[in-house]
Amino acid sequence: MTTATAMTLDAEAIGRISDHLDEPGWLRDLRAAWWERASSIPPPTGQEEAWRRTDLAGLPRDGALLIDAPPLRVDLPPGAAEAGVIVADLRSAVREHPDLVRRFIGQAEGQASHAHFWALAQAAWTGGVFCHVPRGVNVDGTIVVRSAIDRAEATYLPVTLVVADEGADVSILEEVTSPDGAAGWFGGVVEVIAGQGARIRYANLQQLGDGAWNIGSQRVEVGQDADVTTLNAEVGSKVTKVGLDVQMTGKGGTSRLLGLLAAGEDQHIDINSDQDLHASYTTSDLLYLSALYDRARAAFYGVTKVRAGSRQTSSYQECRNLLLSPQAGAEPIPVLEIKANDILRCGHGATAGAIDPTQLFYAQTRGLDPETAERMIVRGFFEQVVAQIRDETIRTRVLGALAER
């Protein structure tokens, strides 16, 4: 069971979190520094380009803060622990591996558009995941981490850190759920760090309750010759606003950003991405697909930046939306900022539209009823992303969640 303590987020509250968790001095100082940062960066006003499609007026900022975070259920493949792989809740990792955690936690700047919320989570986290894969270790199987928030109206700001050292290889699926009902605030942030030649496949399956506000941010750092694939499957929540920040800092690195969104009723999902290609010979591709029912709405604002001095880079962003109701809506906006001449590829594609009536008619002539035919077409629409999910565990869990929606 989790414990919620009614608490206004202020400097005193940050100190009480450290007291409750009996944290070392270095972490108390780090929290205080991030709180000062959060206090100095105003929250979005809605006038910013990245935020004008999401109204934060209804964000439940006064909910009770979860002090004792939900316990994690961790499925670790055989032999991983013996090889030195660490997967633990962040609180335990601070106690048991302080030097290792200190190297990574709170060291990176978040995405500029989400800077306030990134700093807030770094200051006020009470739970999260720490995953570290040592140099050269290949995890044979999928690490699955599940957390279930048991109070719909709570505020929970977890931090997840996934670190793969040089030459390491890992697949990890993180799932989060919460009950339906009252409005709550989930402000989770994720940082994925791939060392030289590392391979990371990180998937996040979000199944929050129907009153939840999911205001999150993810940062991915791709080192030299590293390969990182991230998948976000957004199924739950009332409002989801997620920032994706990919930093291509190492020569020869590759990143893939995959997304599957299924929304109904009055759900609102807003994604904004930054693909920042610093280094030469890097590749960064994005593919996000959404299926929208009822009065659901999806927005996407993505920026690809090719830095001056980089050479032979390749990047593409693609956002496609299937509107399954006349009241559903989508607004995909791709942006390119190219400051280099020597590039291999830099482009984008964006669509929003209903099912082709001819497709639906053809499926029904094969003996399918309208509802079954529609499901089959949606499944085929998602196949463009599903086909890129090589991990069987991740594919099965994500498809199961989407089928329920």
pLDDT under 50 segments (min length 5)? Answer: none
Helix and strand content put the structural class at alpha/beta
The number of helical runs is 8
Instruction: Specify the overall morphology.
Output: globular
User: What helical percentage do the residues reach?
Assistant: 10-25%
Strand content: 35-45%
Defining traits:
405 residues; alpha/beta
Report on this model:
It is globular and about 70 Å long. The longest helix has 17 residues, at 370-386. 48% of the residues are buried. Helices cover 22% and strands 42% of the residues. The chain has helices spanning 11-21, 25-40, 90-96, 98-104, 115-124, 357-365, 370-386, 392-404; strands at residues 3-5, 65-68, 72-75, 86-89, 128-133, 138-148, 155-156, 159-164, 169-177, 184-186, 189-194, 199-207, 212-222, 227-234, 239-248, 254-263, 268-277, 283-292, 297-306, 313-323, 329-338, 343-354. Helix 2 packs antiparallel against helix 5, helix 3 (90-96) packs across helix 4 and helix 6 (357-365) crosses helix 7 (370-386). The chain is an alpha/beta fold and 405 residues long. Strands 4, 5, 7, 8, 10, 11, 13, 15, 17, 19 and 21 form an eleven-stranded mixed sheet that branches.
